[in-house]
Amino acid sequence: MVEDEGKKEEVLTQGKDKEEGEEKSEEMKPWEQHSAVISIPRYDYNATSSLLANSHSGFLITCPIKREKSATKEAIGILEKYIDSDHDAKRRKTCVEDADKECDGSRERTANEHVNSESSTSMEKSDILSLVKLTRSGLVLFKFPFDKSPPIVDIVSQVFQSLESGILKSPLWCNRILPIQGTCCLDEKELKKIVTKLVEKFVNSRQKETGNTVKFAVGYNRRGIEETEMKNLQKSSSDSDAFALLDRNKCFSVVAAAVKEVVPDSMVDLKDPELCVLVEVLPLSGVPDKTAIVGVSVLPRALVSTKPRLCIKALVSDTKEMNKKKK
After folding, report:
1. In what order do the strands lie in the sheet with 293-300?
2. Gap between the Cα atoms of 197 and 149, Å rounded
3. CB 14 within 8 A of CB 7
4. 183 by DSSP, 3-state: which?
5. How far apart are CA 247 and CA 108, in angstroms?
6. What is the mean pLDDT of residues 302-315?
7. Is residue 75 within 8 Å of 61, Cβ to Cβ?
8. How far is CA 65 from CA 61, 71, 139, 167, in A?
9. Does residue 210 have a pLDDT over 70?
């Protein structure tokens, strides 16, 4: 009888422990539960106000819907190989490594410190990138601080070269990485100003290749803002010019005028452009009404695909994906 009562008490104790464990897991916040599985940075909730005030560079990544967190981690792993962190980050990394060498302890403790050191080093490499909260699925946006502007087009070019040579494994979740060279409000003057600046930079760096005449193309992605939705916005808005540039033709004419201002002899060539201007409406969270922010890029032909529409090249070609599925 005594043994039976002892067993019953043991079973009851185990049941209580199990219930307490379940209650603790239920009390955990969603991001705390996720952090146990995948380590990603938190959103920069000041990003929207900063983008409204200043032009920023960064990366816009496309991925499958509901795979944004996996794509975020994968993108950090890819980009950190090509982004040089600032001097302070390097100093912090050195301090972490020195501290690890000086620490004495058991094998288990050393192994745990090594894992923690690796994760902190990985975050330090990408600490200048901020994760921006978006309102659309299937997108991940990173931005650099206002005072930092690394050669992001060169970084994406290196990613493509590494993928082609086999140095970098084909990504599972990141479909495309668009280098955003600058951002602005969707306003005619602002858009023309940033396009002019980027085209001048492109032409000056490739003057021998382009010469006096330049063939160019313009790509415009409104990220889910359909024609009907755009018309409703225009009708409901008291300011008729607030969403004027959401119209494709209007946007194209503003960008084309900016290109021709820099290169008067330039001409449109949708099949084989030397210079490609990509304008992307960024679906930012917390943007005021009657306001839209766009990312602008001026890219060489090698980084874009023209069919079925003008956009940044996919990291993994469709033919490779088809071959993988067949296997």
Report:
1. 182-185, 293-300, 275-282, 215-221, 267-268
2. 14
3. no
4. strand
5. 61
6. 93
7. yes
8. 12, 10, 8, 27
9. no
Query: What is the pTM (predicted TM-score) of this model?
Result: 0.73
- Structure tokens given for 117: 């050191």
Quick check: 315 and 159 in contact, CB under 8 A? yes
Least confident of 41-45, 93-97, 133-137, 308-312: 93-97
The token pair that represents 84 in the structure block: 């040089």
- Characterize 212-246 residue by residue with b for buried, 16 or more Cβ atoms within 10 angstroms of its Cβ, and e for exposed: eebbbbbbbbbbebeeeeeeebbeeeeeeebbbbb
> 139 — phi, psi (to 5°)?
-135, 145
d(CA 184, CA 182): 7
Residue 259 has pLDDT above 50, yes or no: yes
